[in-house]
Specification:
With 339 residues, the protein is of the alpha/beta class. The chain folds into two domains: 218 residues, Spore Coat Polysaccharide Biosynthesis Protein SpsA, Chain A; 95 residues, Rossmann fold, CATH 3.40.50. The chain contains twelve helices and 14 strands. α12 links the parallel β13 and β14. α8 runs parallel beside α10.
Length: 339
């Protein structure tokens, strides 16, 4: 077998129902020089038998049989065994379209300054029943260039994790996946962006991202909303300390209880919320924990304060962004979208 160009990190745990289709999609790639590091995470169904059968037919399938240790341990076992310069992610319930790895590897070949590439993904669930997740897919598919990804990184994770391909050197320099009470994929993205790693996406849909009801992001507390906010708050606070010209002071857009609860996480990191701004007449003019609630029309001119928008209701982020831009506020310089 030729030396692989891409090592695919494929964690597998009790996925016998979907694993054959996932493996077939990888073995049908137009880029043939790959290895599939299929890390069996202590499965109790027929997953190990399927992996052995595929490995017997195609030497590019390299099973790793592990005691159950969770997805981070499985992913890092794959990284330790990877032989290729590029590492791709894949989940055992998703499908890679035929040109996926070829296109993403060519992107990395063409630009040595790129450390990680994703791609647009095709939502594999029921758009009506899973409207929130479908909306998230549409959102991440709109973030293609590095600048878009960087500016929106504190809203939500800007990538579908199984769509990633990154240089092995990147994780050798900045560390592998980390375990904790947080989503390991989002932590890796935030950590690499903080370190200055450039990221982009292929503009094509190259992965079918399925949405089964038992996927980890739906069932494990490390992927809950509060875990996401706890994680990104630390990264956000460090960024503010380095880039907010008015540090530690910020104004928070949104004065609802949920918004205040999430923004208040910044206080533990030394950030000072001087005021809230809102458009709800029931909130304007009040004082909450010693902080005034302003009408957003009362915001100071651009350059005189730094704003964080925590308003996450559908359509509100776009409307607030347009409002700020009309008044000369520049994202990344005067304000950021956070929720």
């Amino acid at each position: 077998m030729a030396a692989p160009k891409v090592s695919v990190a494929l964690p597998c745990c009790n996925c016998a129902a979907t694993l054959p289709d996932a493996l077939d999609s990888l073995l049908s790639q137009t880029l043939a020089e790959i290895e599939i590091l299929a890390a069996d995470d202590g499965s109790t169904d027929s997953t190990p038998d399927i992996l052995r059968a595929y490995a017997g037919r195609d030497a590019r399938v390299r099973p790793l049989f592990l005691a159950h240790g969770g997805i981070v341990a499985a992913l890092n076992a794959c990284l330790e065994q990877a032989q290729a310069p590029y590492v791709a992610r894949m989940d055992a319930d998703d499908l890679s379209l035929p040109e996926r790895l070829d296109i993403q590897a060519r992107m990395l070949d063409a630009d040595p300054g790129l450390g990680l590439v994703g791609c647009k993904v095709r939502f594999g669930g029921d758009r009506k029943a899973r409207a929130g997740y479908a909306h998230y897919v549409d959102w991440i598919n709109g973030l293609i260039r590095h600048e878009q990804i960087f500016l929106n990184r504190f809203v939500e994770s800007p990538f579908a994790h199984p769509s990633l391909v990154f240089r092995r050197q990147v994780v050798e320099e900045h560390g592998p996946y980390r375990a904790g009470e947080f989503p390991e994929d989002y932590e890796l993205i935030l950590r690499l962006l903080e370190a200055g790693v450039r990221m982009e996406k292929a503009a094509q849909e190259l992965l079918v991202w399925n949405d089964p009801p038992d996927r980890l992001s739906r069932t494990h507390p490390s992927y809950g909303v509060e875990a996401f906010y706890q994680l990104k708050t630390g990264f956000l606070a460090r960024w503010l300390a380095a880039h907010n010209p008015h540090h530690p002071d910020v104004i928070v857009l949104g004065a609802g209880r949920t918004t205040r609860k999430r923004a208040d996480l910044l206080l533990e990191h030394g950030v000072n919320i001087v005021a809230y701004a809102d458009i709800d007449p029931r909130k304007i003019g009040r004082t909450v924990h010693g902080r005034p609630v302003l009408h957003r029309d009362e915001l100071p001119p651009a350059g005189q304060a730094f704003c964080l928008s925590y308003v996450g209701s559908r359509g509100a982020r776009e409307e607030i962004g347009a409002f700020l831009r009309e008044r000369g506020w520049e994202e990344g310089k005067d304000c950021l979208m956070v929720g």
